[in-house]
Amino acid sequence: MSAEVAWSPDVLGEGYEQHTVELGPDPDGEGDVAAVVVRRVVRDDETVTGAVVYVHGFSDYFFQTDLADFFAERGLAFYGLDLRKCGRARRPGQTAHYASTLEQYDADLDRTLAIVEADHPGLPVVLLAHSTGGLITPLWLDRRRRAGRTDPVAGLVLNSPWFDLQGGPRMRDVGTLALWAVARVQPLRALELGGSVYGSTLHTSGTGEWDFDLELKPIDAFPITVGWLNAVRRGHARLHRGLDVGVPALVLRSDKTHWSRRYTDASDRADTVLDVRQIQRWAGCLGGETTVVPVTDARHDVFLSLEEPRRQAYAVVDDWLRRHGLVVDRDRAGA
Q1: How many CA atoms lie within 13 A of 46 on its CB side?
Q2: Residue 321 — φ and ψ, nearest 5°?
Q3: What residues does the Serine aminopeptidase S33 domain cover (predicted)?
């Protein structure tokens, strides 16, 4: 397959290439859809002993070159996936991040994994996923296992995965029933959920360190649609019944949640998007060996936290990779 894959320069600049994966007609009627795979080019002085596939969350895309370098320093070739209608893959007229079922993303992940396998045959693959990607990816792995698919996937790292709906019990029961009903007739209806300080804690226009593309990742995020949230709630229900992802899993989360629509110093040292107690509660539903590590003062994306929690998160991943034999050369550069 690798000879058939056409790579072109990526917006991240030198050392990064992208490939568009055409996926055909959108099941939700918004034209043809595609995913975009971005790879960090393996340098001449680097030895590859495995690979990593990164899956972003809602209102997000792959831009974290520091994350790619971290894994490359440990012998793992890095691939970032922008899912259909997300980031680089969104086309004119398409509703950002919209899918009426999370199963639609199976094709994006299957095709990406095939590209990685062709580039690095016989080598183990680690899946790394953030937030909504941290729900999509375990569900996909469980479906592959039940279908008898043989995977090169050897490990799963989840960065603040979205395992349940925030808010009180009525939001999760009565609210979910209402979502189901409205999604049948107005799936693209946008929900009025209020603003968040999260984006401004990340971007250089606020208090953050990262100059990401605000067209692909807006400060205030894209609107959440009823049909998409209904798909997420169905995914939550499947997770809560128990999965078997078939590989060891590491779950990273902040040690606390801080709800606020106004910025304070606490906004930089907590998850302002998800309830971290829910992540802890449902992590056991992944099946098999699961390690959950709270990272002190981490943001929602632990790898975009302030320097000290970010360093701690990288150190935890480094240790976990080594303990599971996913880093072959133990003399590689540290975190």
Answers
A1: 19
A2: -60, -45
A3: 49-191
Query: DSSP class of residue 85?
Result: T
**Residues 231-276: pLDDT tens digits?**
999 999 999 999 999 999 999 999 999 998 889 999 999 999 999 9
Q: What is the DSSP letter of 291?
A: E
Domain of 125, CATH number, reads 3.40.50.1820
- Tally of helices (H runs) and strands (E runs) in the chain: 9, 9
How far apart (Å, rounded) are the C-alpha atoms in residues 32 and 211? 30
Question: Domain containing 121: what range?
Answer: 2-173+228-323
Which candidate, 293, 305, 246, 282, places its Cα nearest to that of 135? 282
| Nearest of 50, 90, 103 to residue 72 by alpha carbon | 50
Length of the chain: 335
Contacts of 322 (CB under 8 A, 6+ apart): 330
Residue pair 111/83 in contact by the 8 Å Cβ criterion: no
Report in angstroms the alpha-carbon separations of 321 from 50, 92, 294: 11, 40, 17
Put simply, whether the predicted model's pTM sits higher than 0.85 gets the answer yes
Separation between Cα atoms, residue 131 and residue 109, nearest integer Å: 16
Cα distances (angstroms) measured from residue 23 to each of 89, 92, 102, 140, 237: 11, 16, 15, 17, 27
Domain count of the chain?
A: 1
Q: Which of 274, 328, 261 is nearest to 300 (CA)?
A: 274
Residue closest to 230 by CA, chosen among 193, 179, 280, 275: 179
How far, in Å, CA of 68 to CA of 113, rounded? 17
Contact 208, 200 (CB under 8 A): yes
Structure tokens, 90: 């969104």
